[in-house]
Design brief:
With 108 residues, the protein is of the alpha+beta class. Helices cover 57% and strands 15% of the residues. It has a four-stranded antiparallel β-sheet with strand order 1-2-3-4.
């Protein structure tokens, strides 16, 4: 969850036009306001601040929770595809080695 929060915070920083990563402070786009982004771990922990007003992790989760869930699911799917691909490659490599041929020759 913290990794995704870091990603979300980075995306927020980029979306606000701050040009800075987590912990950065810069004017918000076209507002003359100051935005501060930081990473928190608890639900009431501020993850951003605008003109002295905190935005908590809970507020952020309420705002982007469904999108965050979809991203978590997509990330899991991508990781599983990667693991399965590596497993397939290694099985082929081991089978080819056992047969004393190349993977390409084994596949023919």
């Amino acid at each position: 969850m913290k990794k995704l929060l870091i990603l979300a915070s980075c995306l927020i920083a980029a979306g606000c036009g701050t040009g800075k990563g987590p912990g950065g402070t810069a004017p918000a786009a076209n507002s003359g306001s100051s935005v501060t982004i930081s990473i928190g771990g608890e639900s009431n922990t501020p993850v951003a601040e605008i003109n002295g007003t905190a935005i908590t992790e809970k507020e952020l989760t309420e705002k982007i929770g469904s999108r965050l869930s979809r991203l978590q699911s997509q990330l899991f799917d991508l990781q599983m595809q990667g693991v399965n691909s590596i497993i397939d490659e290694r099985i082929l490599e081991q089978a080819a080695k056992k047969e004393n041929v190349s993977v390409q020759a084994l596949l023919k």
